[in-house]
Amino acid sequence: MDVCNALADLDESINLMHLSIWKKLSLPELTPTQMTLELVDRSITCPKGLAKDVYVKVGKFYFSTDFVVVDFEADPRVPLILGRSFLRTSRALIDVYGEEITL
């Protein structure tokens, strides 16, 4: 997969990846988790597992991060949600007024 859109969400403390993306990337086995998540519609879901040390390419740089892999009805335009942990690791600069993120 060469290009993938992602949503940067400062409200999220975790990074989320849809199960279909995990399958396309042929990543190693998921690490089991006992986590439960409350979605924006207030429904509760249990993740399929954790994808550890996934490399995300931004420009010419690669960042290693962990993703919680979920299988739920999601917006197909945004298969990844990058939370505060990734934004911190990548030292993101966020200009809310200018609607721009610099990584």
Automatic annotation (TrEMBL):
Alphabetical UniProt keywords: Nucleotidyltransferase, RNA-directed DNA polymerase, Transferase
InterPro entries: Peptidase_aspartic_dom_sf
Highest taxon of the lineage: Eukaryota
One annotated GO molecular function: RNA-directed DNA polymerase activity
Protein's name according to its UniProt entry: Reverse transcriptase domain-containing protein
Organism whose genome encodes this protein: Tanacetum cinerariifolium (Dalmatian daisy)
